[in-house]
Amino acid sequence: MAARRGAVVALTRNGARTGECLARNLPGTILYLPERLKTDLTFPGGAVEYFKEWQALVKDLFFEKSYLVFVSAVAIAVRSLSPHLHDKYRDPA
Predict the structure, then answer these.
(1) Contact indicator for 11, 34 with CB cutoff of 8 Å
(2) pLDDT tens, 19-73?
């Protein structure tokens, strides 16, 4: 099975800079940022997508990507993922 692409998700301007560095160094990775940062930042040569709804994004990425990297507080990542977790037999590693 071919590897699915990964995602780096950031919520703040500083997190976006860190996320851009990660995404640039992880082949096949897309950086996801809130639309409010669209006019503030530019990332030359990087794959960046912007989102409006955080929970919808996390749900889609959880089931579509091979890995997720959250550049945020741990509590935000855990609370965002928890509605989509079932058990260790059905959830992705």
Answers:
(1) yes
(2) 999 998 888 899 999 999 987 777 766 689 999 999 999 999 998 998 999 999 9
d(CA 23, CA 6): 9
Please state the pTM of the whole predicted model: 0.85
Nearest by Cα to 56 from 30, 14, 84: 84
C-alpha distances in Å from residue 19, one per residue of 16, 51, 91, 92: 5, 15, 25, 22
